[in-house]
């Protein structure tokens, strides 16, 4: 692991954020009606109620997707810590600057390779 970073401090940050996200996901799933489509729409007396519920559900699903992706990135970063390669770019194996890890502790690419990935069409 790169000597320029305190890996254990990053582990603590990642684990704390993982716990926060898990709590947020559980709360969102509990608060959002039909998050798993267990019940159908169209059973209300007014179409506006159905539309509002559908909008809230779609919004919650989008937020849930973002949180789940971040959780996956955190899990991957923790695996990299365990493997002894945290803080190294997955492409060029060069150290990721500490400033980048401070801003995004689950980063696995240096800025150059992240920009290249971002420039690729989806």
Describe the protein:
- The radius of gyration is 19 Å and the shape is elongated.
- 63% of the residues lie in helices and 0% in strands.
- It is an all-alpha fold and 122 residues long.
- The model has no long low-confidence stretch (mean pLDDT 87).
- The longest helix is centred in the middle third of the chain and has 37 residues, at 47-83.
Question: Which characteristics define this entry?
Answer:
elongated; 4 helices; 122 residues; single chain; 63% helix; mainly alpha
Average pLDDT figure: 87
Supply the helix-strand structural class: mainly alpha
CATH topology: Four Helix Bundle (Hemerythrin (Met), subunit A)
Question: What share of the residues does DSSP label as strand, in percent?
Answer: under 5%
Order of helices and strands: HHHH
Span of the ends, CA to CA: 31 Å
In CATH, what is the homologous superfamily? DksA, coiled-coil domain
Structure annotation, total helices: 4
Poorly predicted residue ranges: none
Number of domains: 1
Rg (C-alpha, Å): 19 Å
The CATH architecture can be named as Up-down Bundle
CATH class: Mainly Alpha
Shape: elongated
Number of strands: 0
């Amino acid at each position: 692991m790169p000597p320029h970073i305190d890996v254990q401090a990053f582990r603590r940050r990642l684990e704390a954020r993982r716990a926060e996200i898990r709590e947020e996901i559980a709360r969102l799933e509990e608060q959002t009606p039909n998050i798993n489509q267990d019940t159908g729409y169209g059973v209300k007396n007014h179409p506006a109620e159905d539309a509002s519920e559908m909008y809230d559900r779609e919004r919650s699903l989008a937020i849930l997707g973002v949180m789940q992706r971040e959780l996956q990135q955190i899990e991957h970063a923790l695996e990299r810590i365990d493997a002894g390669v945290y803080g190294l770019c997955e492409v060029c194996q060069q150290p990721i600057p500490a400033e980048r890890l401070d801003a995004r502790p689950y980063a696995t690419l240096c800025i150059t390779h992240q920009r290249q990935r971002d420039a690729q069409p989806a």
